[in-house]
Amino acid sequence: MTQAELAELANTNVSEISKLERGDRRLTVDWLARLGTALGVSPHELMLPPSEMVTSGGVPLDLAPHKTMFRRLPVKGEVAAGSWLDFDPLRSEPTDWLDFIPDTKLSADHVYALKVRGTSLNKIAPDGSVLVCLDAVGAGLAIREGDLVIVAQSREGGLREVTAKRVKRANGQYELWPESIDPKWQAPIFLNGEDETVAVKAIVKYIVISL
Question: Does 166 reside within a domain?
């Protein structure tokens, strides 16, 4: 199969396929799903050595991204604006697992995933997407302008909410803005360093969108 044929089946272009084969483009879970559908195999089969890789029709594949291994990330909760819970939404025990191709630049001890619920992030991550997060506190990272961060808020009665916001800086302070086109979620959060009801928990490194 040529790169052009695979690109057409995967609804992409030859340049993207070439980057994947050279290793210049990260082979994400989304890409594995798209390529698997195009080739008639499961994403798992794309991880096999070339000698074991065949299409559903028994034809050997010439695309072999088998050098990359999945890692299971714990899904520790949900990002859901407006959902105030009487327990910590960032659970210590995982509610699910995400098969993810690891980034060697990220410390495995501080990486986890959160599932998106609702429309508060629908400009970049629709409902059902998964955010791969790096624990900012555990990894000792400071937030920067432009970061997409996980924000935990609390209010009277022990209720807690977890959302994701974009960091902006204005008038000498940080502002956390929604990435949403829903009119309900347009108000920013202002960080002044004194409000103990607001805490930045993690920095979002990747967004996994279901195809």
Answer: yes
Q: Are residues 118 and 204 in the same domain?
A: yes
Residue 80 sits in the same domain as residue 180: yes
Cβ 66 vs Cβ 41: under 8 Å: no
0.70 surpassed by pTM: no
- pLDDT < 50 positions in the chain: 48-69
Q: What is the pLDDT of residues 163-190, one digit of tens each?
A: 999 999 888 889 999 999 999 999 999 8
Rounded-to-integer distance, Cα 23 and Cα 20, Å: 5
Length of the chain: 211
